[in-house]
């Protein structure tokens, strides 16, 4: 059983997946910072200087006027934090787009490598199948 486990772990696909998960986690931190520190402030400019990710609506409970999302959540009130949700959607779309570009690039490299690896078809040596069939037909006609 230990040997089977070692064989499973040492397969290329499992190692590739592990590397992908580690790189993906690091990439997620970068995208989160991109959205939080760069994109949300730009969107906030269009919303009158408001922090986009802290937008919310109080569903029930009492929240002081102008309280931040963190303060509103701290009061125990039920809040609809649509700004945080929209930030998560932006994160997802950026990550999905970058993964799409990476997969597209990897597929292009694989296609180029497979085209180089495939040998060119050799010219047939001797008569082709059509030539042989035509010769047989002509011989049968002659009889």
Structural overview:
The N and C termini lie far apart (72 Å). A two-stranded antiparallel sheet has the order 1-2. The mean pLDDT is 80. Helix 2 packs across helix 4 (82-117). It has a single domain, classed as Large-conductance mechanosensitive channel, MscL, domain 1 (Non-ribosomal Peptide Synthetase Peptidyl Carrier Protein, Chain A, Orthogonal Bundle). It has 5 helices and 2 strands, in the order H-H-E-H-E-H-H. The chain has 143 residues and is mainly α.
Task: Compose a concise summary of this entry.
The protein has 143 residues and is mostly helical.
Supply the key terms.
143 residues; mainly alpha; Non-ribosomal Peptide Synthetase Peptidyl Carrier Protein, Chain A; two-stranded antiparallel sheet; 5% strand
| Main sheet: strand order | 1-2
In the predicted model, the low-confidence regions spanning at least 5 consecutive residues are none
Give a short account of the largest sheet.
2 strands, antiparallel
Residues in helices, as a percent range:
55-70%
Mean pLDDT: 80
Radius of gyration: 31 Å
* Shape assignment: elongated
- Work out the number of β strands: 2
CATH C-level category = Mainly Alpha
Our count of helices gives 5
**CATH T-level fold name:** Non-ribosomal Peptide Synthetase Peptidyl Carrier Protein, Chain A
CATH architecture: Orthogonal Bundle
- Category by helix and strand content: mainly alpha
Classify the beta-strand content into a percent band: under 5%
CA(first)-CA(last) distance: 72 Å
CATH superfamily: Large-conductance mechanosensitive channel, MscL, domain 1
Order of helices and strands: HHEHEHH
């Amino acid at each position: 059983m230990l040997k089977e486990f070692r064989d499973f772990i040492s397969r290329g696909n499992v190692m590739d997946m592990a590397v992908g998960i580690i790189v993906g986690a690091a990439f997620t931190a970068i995208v989160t910072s991109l959205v939080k520190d760069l994109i949300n402030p730009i969107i906030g400019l269009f919303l009158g200087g408001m922090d986009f990710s802290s937008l919310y609506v109080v569903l029930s409970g009492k929240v002081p006027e102008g309280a931040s999302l963190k303060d509103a959540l701290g009061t125990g009130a039920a809040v609809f934090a649509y700004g945080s949700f929209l930030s998560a959607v932006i994160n997802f779309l950026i990550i999905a787009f970058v993964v799409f570009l990476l997969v597209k690039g990897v597929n292009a490299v694989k296609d180029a490598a497979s085209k180089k690896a495939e040998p060119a078809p050799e010219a047939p040596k001797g008569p082709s199948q059509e030539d042989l069939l035509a010769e047989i037909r002509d011989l049968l006609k002659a009889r």
